């Protein structure tokens, strides 16, 4: 007799055995292709049509956190990993920023820069460090944020990644500046100026990523995870920024981690 499933769904590989089906040995190896196909059909008919997973609701936490997986990175200490909803919101915001930059790149690149904005030459690594981070951070005299300066001097506190600036950078320059800042970050602590530029440069990267970008982004995530693991308090002002960068690398640019 045919099963209900066989009545509703015709077989892709119909096999007719007739009376010989009664002598089919399910415990032994099939003697020919027909016996093999019949064994598969009989085994399938014994499987339940609906399988329900047994889940204990008491083991589910109301507020779950997901540690974004980054190959080679140190896991976040207990309580230092952001919630899944926070990560999803940051990825959504980052996607909006990327789309805005792409859409308005030509408009902003045509805008005239202020007279005090002197962008370094492409190969001037030290010049880019001074330009992005400011002389105080570059020289190690202070890591204070720009907002604390009574008289704002971008040469001292670093030029923010204004759209009029980053829109002028082609992909080669974006990647080169990103590599310069990540290399600087490898031996120093996190500062707000660095975070702003890293975020902006990641937003300017075009997909698919170049192989050089893969290596740089992995390096960035590892360094952020290393600093995060050394934090002593969940209230540390560096934690949200470090989590943000790790989140973007792991969730928005996952191909870079393969």
UniProtKB/TrEMBL annotation:
The keyword Ion transport does not apply. InterPro entries: GEMIN2, Gemin2/Brr1. GO terms for cellular component: Gemini of Cajal bodies; SMN complex; spliceosomal complex. Signal peptide: none annotated. This is Gem-associated protein 2. The keyword Cell inner membrane does not apply. The SMN complex catalyzes the assembly of small nuclear ribonucleoproteins (snRNPs), the building blocks of the spliceosome, and thereby plays an important role in the splicing of cellular pre-mRNAs. Keywords: Cytoplasm, mRNA processing, mRNA splicing, Nucleus.
